[in-house]
Q: What sequence folds into this?
């Protein structure tokens, strides 16, 4: 992920004539349930996978989007989302 973030900001730096708006979302699919990992602990949102009727693009309706400006903003959100991930035991033999 770090390399992808570096590439994004490198591309932005290489095109100063353009204006960019960056937003980050972070979700997991666990036991066939969508979970917004950027919601505050204890909060839940009803998420659903949908297809835009005109653009024919797939998106997750209700998913939180956070605007970011720097590498650090993204890494902070990744850390926050990581803490909200579902952690379960696996069966070991």
A:
């Amino acid at each position: 992920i770090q390399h992808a973030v570096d590439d994004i900001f490198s591309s932005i730096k290489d095109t100063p004539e353009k204006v960019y708006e960056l937003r980050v979302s972070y979700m997991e699919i666990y036991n066939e349930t969508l979970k917004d990992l950027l919601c505050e602990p204890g909060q839940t949102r009803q998420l659903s996978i949908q297809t835009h009727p005109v653009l024919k693009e797939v998106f997750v309706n209700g998913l939180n989007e956070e605007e970011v400006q720097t590498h650090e903003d993204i890494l902070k959100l990744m850390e926050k989302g990581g803490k909200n991930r579902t952690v379960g035991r696996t069966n070991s033999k």
